[in-house]
C-alpha cells in the first residue's frame, strides 16, 4: 500500500472565460501554496509525500513548486492529471456553460468528442502511477479520481476547495479513497 495526496491548485489570478487561458496564482493562491506545503511537510514521515507531480497548467505548477523546493525534488509534469479537455468545436467563451452543464450530470452525459468515462479512468491511472506523491491537479480531475475510486458516476461528486487535499491509498494498482479534501462553500465559477 502507498499513499497519494491529490491537491487542487491554489486560487488563480483569473477564471474561466477570461482572456488568460493559463493563469498563474493570485496573491491569495500563492499564500495557499505555501500553507499546503507546510501542512504536507507536517505529516508523519510514512505519510509525507516524497515526490511532487503537477498538471501542466501554470496554476498547478505554481501551487506545487514550493513543495518540490522544500523536498529538494524535481517537479514532475503529467498531462493525465490535467484539466478536462474541452470539445474541439467549442468556442472558449462557451466553456463555462459547457462545464456548468457537465457538473449537473454523469460522466456519460457530457457532450463532446471524447469518451469522458475513459478520461476519468486515464486520470485515475495517472494519479495511481505516482505512489508516494503529492499530485497537484484540478476540480474536475479530482472528481474523476474520486469517481473511479468509489465507482460513482456523478461529475461533481464533491466540491474541492482551492488547495484541499484528497487522500488515496494505492492498493493492487487501484485507488482507494481515504479522505476527500475540504469542500468549497461557494460555486466553482
Describe the structure.
- By secondary structure, this protein is an alpha/beta fold.
- The chain has one domain: Phosphoglycerate mutase-like (Rossmann fold), CATH 3.40.50.
- Helices cover 33% and strands 17% of the residues.
- It is built from 5 helices and 6 strands; from the N terminus they run E-H-E-H-E-H-H-E-H-E-E.
- The chain has a 6-stranded mixed beta sheet with strand order 3-2-4-1-5-6.
- Helix 1 runs parallel beside helix 2 and helix 4 crosses helix 5.
- The protein is globular.
- The model has no long low-confidence stretch (mean pLDDT 93).
- Shape label: globular
**Series of H and E elements:** EHEHEHHEHEE
Contiguous low-pLDDT stretches (5 residues minimum) are none
Helical content (DSSP H or I, runs of 4+): 25-40%
Average pLDDT works out at 93
Q: Which short descriptors sum up this protein?
A:
5 helices, single chain, 33% helix, alpha/beta, Rossmann fold, 189 residues
Topology summary:
Layout (H helix, E strand, L loop, with lengths): L1 E7 L18 H15 L9 E4 L3 H14 L3 E3 L17 H9 L12 H13 L4 E5 L1 H12 L14 E7 L2 E6 L10
Parallel strand pairs: 1-4, 2-3, 2-4
Antiparallel strand pairs: 1-5, 5-6
Helix pairs in contact: 1-2, 4-5
Write a brief caption for the model.
By secondary structure, this protein is of the alpha/beta class. The protein is built from five helices and six strands. A hairpin with a 2-residue loop joins strand 5 (165-171) and strand 6.
Amino acid at each position: 500500500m502507498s499513499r497519494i495526496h491529490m491537491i487542487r491548485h491554489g486560487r488563480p489570478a483569473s477564471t474561466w472565460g477570461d482572456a488568460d487561458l493559463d493563469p498563474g496564482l493570485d496573491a491569495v493562491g500563492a499564500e495557499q501554496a505555501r500553507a499546503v506545503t507546510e501542512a504536507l511537510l507536517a505529516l508523519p514521515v510514512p505519510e509525507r509525500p516524497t515526490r511532487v507531480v503537477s498538471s501542466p497548467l501554470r496554476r498547478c505548477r505554481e501551487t506545487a513548486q514550493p513543495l518540490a523546493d522544500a523536498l529538494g525534488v524535481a517537479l514532475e509534469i503529467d498531462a493525465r492529471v490535467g484539466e478536462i479537455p474541452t470539445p474541439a468545436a467549442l468556442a472558449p467563451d462557451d466553456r463555462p456553460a459547457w462545464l456548468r452543464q457537465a457538473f449537473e450530470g454523469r460522466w456519460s452525459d457530457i457532450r463532446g468528442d471524447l469518451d469522458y468515462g475513459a478520461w476519468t479512468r486515464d486520470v485515475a491511472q495517472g494519479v495511481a502511477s505516482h505512489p508516494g506523491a503529492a499530485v497537484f491537479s484540478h476540480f474536475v480531475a479530482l472528481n474523476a479520481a474520486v469517481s473511479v475510486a468509489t465507482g460513482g458516476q456523478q461529475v461533481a461528486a464533491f466540491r474541492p476547495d482551492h488547495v484541499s487535499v484528497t487522500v488515496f491509498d494505492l492498493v493492487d494498482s487501484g485507488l482507494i479513497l481515504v479522505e476527500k479534501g475540504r469542500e468549497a462553500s461557494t460555486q466553482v465559477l
